[in-house]
């Protein structure tokens, strides 16, 4: 299949704006520079042409920009499918599991906000190839980090936040005060 190597620039660049989406829309793979929009266009075109499901696998190390790349692909689909003006679909899909994100992020030696969960995002299209819905499934990536953490790493953020709030009356019944060693 097609492989695109993308590097997270850690800042907003003008290569992901609306006019760039339109530039890649309708183009053949290889006619333009490698880009997440080229990959998304190819998947979209193949879906429409062959009426078959398509997959885009976004993989990489912590902090590589996987979530951002997924957002750009969804923005591309919403724009070329005519639904971008109606909804901000990528935000709705990625915001659909905020509790899982709050519980699942931790500090690693490479990234202060590293997700411990992978996401499988299934996007549904109607007969006109407009996005009609999405389903996000999460799965635990690194079970070892649940019971072990490397030096200079921190486990799940939510646990530390709860422990820091242990003295609040609404958290009294949770028994968080016994985790005093985490409050340093």
UniProtKB/TrEMBL annotation:
Residues 1-184 form the Myosin motor domain. Keywords: Actin-binding, ATP-binding, Motor protein, Myosin, Nucleotide-binding. GO terms for cellular component: cytoplasm; membrane; myosin complex. The gene is Myo5b_5. ATP binds at residues 60-67. One of its GO terms (molecular function) is actin filament binding. One of its GO terms (biological process) is actin filament organization. This is MYO5B protein. Belongs to the TRAFAC class myosin-kinesin ATPase superfamily. Myosin family. It holds the Pfam family Myosin_head.
């Amino acid at each position: 299949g097609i492989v695109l190597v993308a590097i997270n620039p850690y800042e907003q660049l003008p290569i992901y704006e609306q006019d760039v989406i339109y530039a890649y829309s309708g183009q053949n793979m290889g006619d333009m520079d490698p880009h997440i929009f080229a990959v998304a266009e190819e998947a979209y075109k193949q879906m429409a042409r062959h009426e078959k499901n398509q997959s885009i696998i976004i993989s990489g190390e912590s902090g590589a920009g996987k979530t951002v790349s997924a957002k750009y692909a969804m923005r591309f689909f919403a724009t070329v499918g005519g639904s971008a003006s109606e909804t901000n679909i990528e935000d709705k899909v990625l915001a659909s599991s905020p509790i899982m994100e709050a519980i699942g992020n931790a500090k690693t030696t490479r990234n202060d906000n590293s997700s411990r969960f992978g996401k499988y995002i299934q996007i549904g299209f109607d007969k006109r190839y407009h996005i009609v819905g999405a389903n996000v499934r999460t799965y635990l990536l690194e079970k070892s980090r649940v019971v072990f953490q490397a030096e200079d790493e921190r486990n799940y953020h939510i646990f530390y936040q709860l422990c820091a709030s242990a003295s609040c009356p609404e958290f009294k019944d949770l028994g968080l005060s016994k985790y005093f060693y985490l409050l340093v």
